[in-house]
Amino acid sequence: MSERSAKLCSKLCADIGYRTISHFGEELCGDTIDVAEQGESSVAVLADGLGSGVKACILSTLTSKIISTMIASGMSIEDCVETMAATLPVCSVRGVAYSTFTIIKIDGNRTAEIIQYDNPKVILLRNFNNCEYPIQEVTIGGKRIFKSRISLQINDIFVAISDGCSHAGIGLSYNWGWKREEMIEFLEAVSLGGYTAKTISTILIEEIDRLYGSKPGDDASVCAIHIRERVPVNLLLGPPSNRDDCGRMMSLFFSKEGKKIICGGTTSTIAAKHLNKKLITSLEYVDQDIPPIAQIEGVDLVTEGVITLNKVILHARNYLSNNDRYLDWGLNRDGASLICRLLFEEATDINFFVGRAVNPAHQSPDLPISFSIKMNLVAELSDCLRKMGKRIKVSYF
């Protein structure tokens, strides 16, 4: 690899997100998606258990977990597939495997290895358009396996689906389900929005649910992988416990590459003084539950502190579950929504600068806010963002 290529790879990251919906009337989904990390590489496995319900859920869970664990422990994809092909039984009645699977391994942000066994073909979007990629058919353990190896480019989007996605709309919107070319056309339009992998998978699964009339006739799963350039964002909350550290804290914060978010009235006042800029406040409530934002020249976003961040955490919890509120924070202009768009959608690397000073206003017995609550908010938000696949660094002052 050339030095230029190595530098480019170091600036890339694989953003992985997924959503599933269960067969109507079933509490458990028969599809399972598992993601594992191995150094600078990551692997996503989508397994589709035969049928639906508890049995399918167990089969797909075992398949996805075994494959991802073997690959994460250093076993080659070929050896993993050979093991699974030899292990998975075939239904004597239907003549199909008890669990099919798709494996996408992102190797050091340089290449993608794709292994497909009886699942719909993975969709690759490159430059917002469908991209056909080479596929090699091999026989492993008596089973037909399709292999691909693809050199990665910025903004490549891989979408793996279970067959419940292609069955969507049968007898309702379509006679024979949602055709692959129609799904690709839908995804090409979605890809123009620059969304995260989680939001891409959410938009697609919601369309699939709509085509089923909100009564899915099969389990349906989507796993998206978006190859992105690393984007740093910095968030400053609270003044330092020692006033003498204000200058050092502000200098470190403003020297960092990336967009700047400042949360809290006292903190923004100190930042404005450090920059020798005017703090412009507002009384306009975009959302009656969220205090208005402010402005400081040279700062991308200035918001209130604890109340706003508490709302951000509520959105983060939903993002990590079914993400059905993504339009709320994705379109609204209140401070919490603006923070969500920066942290959830744009950022890949987030630096928190957290001051440990106790705010006297928060010690009022009439306010359910305390220093420990502020620290807990930072800890929970950091944890949520890590689960989203972000690199997090927290510095306390």
Give the helix proportion (percent range): 25-40%
Low-confidence stretches: none
3D shape? elongated
In total, the number of domains comes to 2
Task: Report the strand count.
Answer: 18
CATH architecture of the largest domain: 4-Layer Sandwich
What structural category arises from helix and sheet content? alpha+beta
Give helix and strand order, one letter per element, not per position.
HEEEHHEEEEEEEHHHEEHEHEEEHHHEHE
Q: Helix count, per DSSP?
A: 12
Tell me the strand percentage band.
25-35%
Spell out the CATH superfamily of the largest domain: PPM-type phosphatase domain
Q: Please list the strands of the largest sheet in the order they lie side by side.
A: 2-3-4-5-9-8
The major sheet is characterized as: 6 strands, antiparallel
Calculate the mean pLDDT score and round it.
90
Quick rundown:
The chain is an alpha+beta fold. It has 12 helices and 18 strands. It has 2 domains: 3-229, PPM-type phosphatase domain (Phosphatase 2c, domain 1, 4-Layer Sandwich); 232-396, no CATH class.
Which features characterize this protein?
2 domains, Phosphatase 2c, domain 1, 397 residues, 6-stranded antiparallel β-sheet, alpha+beta
